[in-house]
Specification:
Elements: E1 6-12, H1 16-32, E2 37-42, H2 48-53, E3 56-59, H3 74-77, E4 82-85, H4 97-103
């Protein structure tokens, strides 16, 4: 069951390559998880493609700091009650609804995935 108060958020700002990566992420989410809403915090509020690919386009707040400091404020950026943050350089290769089910009942969770370099 998909809830309307849940969704994903990503951050993309600065160099155009980050915006393009976020667009690719949004397209992959739209393909594999069409029922899950998408939000982005960005400094490119005039980019029409972002407005089409994301359900919510939130203005980046530079006073939150730079780089990883922005991630410390995801709770302020997200328009959703339940939010999964996805880095803009990621893509979805299958439905991600299972993540929301897996984390149901937790107040705050972190998930790290080790990448095997071999």
């Amino acid at each position: 069951m998909v809830e309307h108060d849940q969704g994903t958020i990503t951050l993309a700002y600065g160099l155009p390559k980050y915006i393009e990566m976020a667009k690719t992420l949004a397209r992959s989410l739209r393909l594999h998880s069409p029922g899950i809403r998408r939000a982005i915090a960005t400094d490119r509020l005039d980019d029409k493609s972002l407005l089409e690919l994301f359900d919510s386009v939130v203005p980046l707040r530079k006073e939150y700091g730079s780089n990883v400091r922005q991630k410390l404020h995801l709770d302020r950026y997200s328009p959703f009650t339940r939010t999964v943050f996805i880095d803009c350089d990621s893509i979805a290769v299958r439905d991600i609804q299972f993540i929301f089910e897996l984390l149901r009942g937790t107040g705050f969770s972190l998930k790290f995935r080790a990448v095997d370099s071999n």
